[in-house]
Amino acid sequence: MKITHTRIKSILLSGAAIGTLAMPGAALAQDVAQEDAEVDSSVIIVTASKREQTLQEVPISVSVTSGETIERAQIRDVLDLQTVVPSLRVSQLQTSSATTFIIRGFGNGDNNFGIEPSVGVFIDGVFRSRSASAISDLNLISRVEVLSGPQSTLFGKNASAGVISIVTKEPQYEFGGQVEASYGNFNAINLRGEVTGPITENIAFSLDGTYQKRDGFGRIVNLNNADINNRDRWSVRGNLLIEPTSDIKIRLIADYSKIDESCCQTSNVIVGPITAGAVGGIGGRFPTDFFSFDNFVNAVPFNRNENYGFSGQVDWSLGAFSLTSITAYRELTNAFTQDVDFTSADITAETRDQAVSTFTQELRIASDFDGPINFLLGGYYFDENITQDSNLTIGRDFRNFAAFQAAPAALVPPGATPAQRVAIGNAVLNNVEAGLGLPRNSILGGNFLTQERFALDNKSWSIFGTVDFEPVDGLVFTAGFNYTDDKKNFGINFDALDPLASINFVDAFITGATGGAVRTRQQFQALPAANQQALLAAATNPAINTLLPLGVLQFQTQSPDVPNVVEDGRTRDDKFTYLLRAAYQISDEINVYASYATGFKASSVNLSRDSRPLSTDFIPGPGPAGRGSSFAAPSSPLTNAGLNTPNLSTGTRFAGPEEAEVYEIGMKAQWDGFGVNLALFDQTIQGFQSFLFTGLGFGLANAGQQSVKGFELDTTVQPSEALVFTFAATYLDAKYDDFSTGPLGDLSGRRPGGIPEWSLRTSVTHTHEFGDSGTRLISRLDYSHESNVNILDGIAGFNANQFRREVNLVNGSMTLQLNNGIEVGAFARNLLDQQFILTVFPGVAQAGTVSGYPNAPRTFGGLVRFKF
What we know:
Subcellular location: Cell outer membrane
CATH architecture: Beta Barrel
Main location: membrane
Number of domains: 1
Strand content: over 45%
Distance between the termini: 31 Å
Pfam families: Plug, TonB_dep_Rec_b-barrel
CATH topology: Maltoporin, Chain A
CATH superfamily: TonB-dependent receptor, beta-barrel domain
Protein name: TonB-dependent receptor
Shape: globular
Organism: Blastomonas fulva
Largest sheet: 22 strands, antiparallel, barrel
Structural class: mainly beta
Helix content: under 10%
């Protein structure tokens, strides 16, 4: 049956739902939604712009993974989605809940709860504000859509880089469901099930749950080979669908998920001299073979995550209008403890205890006119509260670890043993303590290096909408807008507890040189200028001031609490963004479009121990970087207010907004047995919020401008009913147009780390029918590739080209579907057992060491599934 544009339009306007989109390169033609039985099975119905449309008509670069593809490919969670969506990259790093989503090279916020993600994740229309609340198992999924570029006119909560929208299945009025059990290597056990059916003639329910348990990929050698990088998580979700009349549909969802795991597998890419000498000198062990999956830590890490909430969606048809309301409340608790020096020596561990509560309300109205003009108008409210208590401990080996480094080379005799060097270093520290008036053995002799408490309250609201004008059949002009008002109030209470951290060595020398006559800034400033200069010249000269080399032992230094009389602990942002687009359906098979869109993401707050005052609020005095004299500090707001703490440095409390701009032209085409989508884009983000791990904290800064030009191509070829080929490619030409003020120096003109030039995804699926029996064998093989790329922008002291990554992953599955509902299958992920580095970071308190995370090894198993 030929599908005319008029017929399609009547289908498209039959309802409004969550904004969802599709890509034939990831969705099989037979995976078509069945909302309208009269639609040809090769037409994929999606709901872009919060309205139903065919894939061919969707004038946006989008990707979709169908629930059936997720099931066949054994995609368990969002981490695995990147193997079928070339524009998407997902990474899990320090903990089970530290996940970053990146689209077209843009994304951040994985390990700092003060940073809003540039890629927004929505599950059934509800925004998941932190990636830790968006990592639940994918179960009862209808489809997962990835929208590239800013989506300010479709989603009330702005996302400057793109959106991942996960749509789950609605309850059905016919009783049914499925149960599944799988077992694989590493003793992986996966159980999942779902049941749905009617309660009354206008109320239906569904209940589903998952359970995952798996041994770790790695082993902690010095702790009796205890597991690390294991899986231990479960989830449950309940749905009610209530339709009191033919015009009203109510969907209520409640869900709960829990993670209790030991994460993550870490190793050393480069072992520096401090690791080899200081750690080895106190009897510590450390990994040297990156892909051995051997770990050496003094305690098994843990990550506990609880994520739960409920939502209610009401869709009400009012003749020519439809009204939609989505109300949601969510709670997230996330706690972990990890030995962050990643050695068997007891040096330091990090603990975090985080809590997030979020309330959201979306309300929108859409028209369904027969005339040339239709519109959508919406409002969105967001209220979130975040608290975090965290600390760094001082382990029993920290003092000796520091003493090894404190021993001056001139005092260490040739052939001295590590124990002798530690003894010499301890004697030096004892002398320093005596000279500075500190208790004996107090340097690195307490319980905590730092203790901190962070709080963030974020309230925002927005108005958004679009207007479509179709002067002639097939030609549609769209204009959209979004106005967002965002307010954040934050508090930072930070204590650097080691006594050495609160002593400025430049000032201590001046106090000693003046016989104790100068102990304050006021006393120093009262000296004649010539005396000041003479004292500073001697105090900043390492040959004269022998305390200066001990600055390497001041691992964390004090910073004023926020808010204070200078720093109000507030950000206030508002922005108007808009969309202009023209789309034309050339024929029943081909649609083309061109668009210009802007996007926005509000300021993010640096909720980490690296939070430091802005350079406009504080000017350090002369001396080593980050250790400048307080006595000689120039006039600045914090100094004038008496808030200048010893060894205070500048950085960021927050990063300003991101502002996105994208030009895009595209084509959607679909013929019998062949489909192709192509999008060419030029996307820029001004003020991109760059986030960098610095060793014991996180640096946050705005890149002046980051841009990416490229294209996204996806095709589907179906030569027969039994055989489907897909191919998708993304090409990215990325650059820092302006990034002169980052923590790594001027990166302007360079390609940002971690953004591959090419990303390819391809698959082949074959379905063998055993006559007319209804039994069939489905075989699937897929391949994903990312071209060689620098993993990071760089690490201080190293060339960025030293750390590179190339990805080539092959996955496969085979499922025998019997006509009685029983299915038996086998699967493998990373079939060829490829090894690569996910990311790298500087060794914690170990200058010269670079650590990193390896990818997961090959996994495989078998499953049994029963559908009823």
